[in-house]
Fold:
Amino acid sequence: QVQLVESGGGLVQPGGSLRLSCAASGTIFIVYTMGWYRQAPGKQRELVAVITPGNSANYSDSVKGRFTISSDNTKNTVNLQMNNLKPEDTAVYYCHMEHWEYGRRDSWGQGTQVTVSS
Structure:
């Protein structure tokens, strides 16, 4: 079983920065993607950014140019550097890993709160 543990959330003023980190542990055979999703109150969970082991990254339009995703394949970690944060970025951020474990699997972290407010 794979476990994902996030860290780095918190309260920040508009225009500020935060860095989220996520570490995967357990028996990991093949990783297809690692990424970040977020869910704001009353809204559906949405993709923020995703990266492949080959370092191909995709971002939602709302965060392009402000957020940067990176990963370390040897350690099964993924980070999200968030700059120029806006109040609309306020949400619970979830780490996600798509991987193979006797079939294609999705694993999720427990979530970390990011609040952007003055």
Summary: The two ends are 40 Å apart (CA to CA). The CA atoms of residues 11 and 67 lie 17 Å apart. The chain is about 0% helix and 55% strand.
